[in-house]
Amino acid sequence: MVKSRTYRVPFTWRDVSTYRGELFGVAILSIVLYHYFMVFNNTEAPNAVLRVISKFYNSAVSSVGVDIFIFLSGFGLYYSLSRGGKLTTYYRKRVYRVVVPYLVCGLIYWGIIDFVFLHVSIRQFLLDYSLLSFWISGTETLWYISFITILYIISPFIYRMTNDKLMLVIGVLCSFGLIILCYFAAPDFFHNIERALQRLPYFLIGMGAGKQSKNMTSDDEQGIPLWLACVIVCAVFVKVLVGKTNFVLGRSFYGYYGIFLIFAYVMVRKAMAGRWNRLFSVFSILGKYSLEIYIVHTAVKNIMTRLEFSMQNPLIYLMHIAIVIPLVACVTKLLNILEAPTRGRGNTVKDNN
Q: Are 161 and 175 in contact (CB under 8 A)?
């Protein structure tokens, strides 16, 4: 059998597994920074230095942290599903990991937003709280929770597909086809959900990469497939040099830029082995609580915006972070109490998948 051509690099998919927790931490940090610079870039703030930094960040990084989240979630889910076990156990872990934190925080958040600020009906509150409003009307707040929950539900079926490389390729191509079909057949619906739909191929590729990592042996050749190297180079060129991704499949294409950043982090991390351990441990902690940080940060930021705080002010944004940290600690403590019965049955439900 002829092996596919690869470029040798100081990197293997197994390295992604090794540093996956830190990568989650870097991703959530990039998202928090992106939310700040996005607000700053949309105002007439006079700080010239911050304006230059903001434009650079929005151009070079932007929302790529979400793409990294999606890829790493697919990557880790392959590991989780490859362990075997009952599907009921798998789904229970996902419920405690995603659904329970959202139900706790979402009830408070949507209650404040919908009833205190917007004075909407009970029906609209239920649409918002269930996150159905994202799929119906494109409400962007906490859309990631809705999308990743659906991916968790269908992941066991995708896992079976990854066992056949041809089926995985067909699945990725079909997901691209679904995006194009939705774009032309239902443009309004596509506009509502494109931030989720265009990331579906990236999740599938993440699961495929998880399989490569899980099944890798010490004798396997280091490197990445030639086709993936070419796509990554093109994605970096389009995003960094051209700066445009607002074309059909643009966000999906942008996802490969996220893989490039994952490669870059892993290679720098390996080169820095034994140094800057405190910084990397901070990334690990952020990664461990990345979902809770995402939910609480989004909620606090939006509520403070409704209260007319100047979120483009760095001091105000730092104050928002100071509020988020203890709230995340409280949410984590509450979740630990709710998870205690499952731990008593010998199940651990805390992971980043």
A: no
Alpha-carbon dihedral angle through residues 197, 203, 208, 212, given to the nearest 10 degrees: 160
pLDDT in tens, 128-179: 999 999 999 999 999 999 999 999 999 999 999 888 888 988 998 899 899 9
Instruction: Output the CA–CA distances (angstroms, integers) from residue 224 to 12, 51, 261, 303, in the order listed.
Output: 8, 37, 14, 44
Pinpoint the alpha helices (H) of 83-224. 87-94, 100-111, 122-129, 132-137, 143-162, 165-185, 187-197, 200-214
Q: Which residues are paired to 6 by β-bridges?
A: 225
Backbone dihedral angles phi then psi of residue 308, each to the nearest 5 degrees = 65, 35
Q: Residue ranges of the domains in the chain?
A: 6-341
Strands (E), 9-134: none
In this predicted model, what pLDDT tens digit does every residue of 204-221 receive, in sequence order?
999 999 998 888 765 555
What pTM did the predictor assign?
A: 0.89
What is the amino acid identity at position 45?
A
